[in-house]
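Internal tracking record. Fields below are filled automatically when a chain is submitted to the structure queue. Please do not edit lines marked as system-generated. If the sequence contains nonstandard residues, flag them in the REMARKS field before resubmitting.
Queue: standard
Priority: normal
Entity type: single polypeptide chain
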Amino acid sequence: MLAEEREMTRGAFLALLAQESDIKTVADLGRSKDILPAIRLHRPDAAVIDMDMLTPDGLSLIQTVFDELPETRTLILTNHGRPGVVRQALNIGVSGFLHKDSPPEKLVSAIRDLAAGRRVIDADLAMSAWQTPLPPLTERELEVLRLIATGEAVPAIATRLHLSPGTVRNYLTTVESKLHARTRVDAVRIATDAGWL
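SYSTEM-GENERATED OUTPUT FOLLOWS
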């Protein structure tokens, strides 16, 4: 399955894969909301997904695929490869990461490797992910900050996470302190730039 929002790029990938007799594309998608339903319907051996199609909480989609259909291996294609995101994705079960600047034959080879049960990680992306320090925030602090980044208000976050609004505000104060941020918006910017969100 191929998920790429740019139609011309998706068409080029499809043309490349059509030349391979041992690779069959069961679905090609241009909208992120179609990814999970298509994976559930087609149960592909490999799902090639453009990182730009993943919403700010897109890694939860990858986690869902890993939990529900562990036989479907996921390969993320990226232009930027923020180290924190790469590390987080690998920790939740992404089978591979490939830079979009890679030669076309590398994509074909990566799909075959995934189907054979191997992980495929671009060497430069892997090095940057492992050389970048881990975030100084706890998982709960990151979760609260992710929700703030999507525009949720403190009361809504409190309800969603089964916390009191005061506890959510305490988490945000701690986040601002740990990141040396002046405001919540500044904390979101710092964490996003570092690849933690």
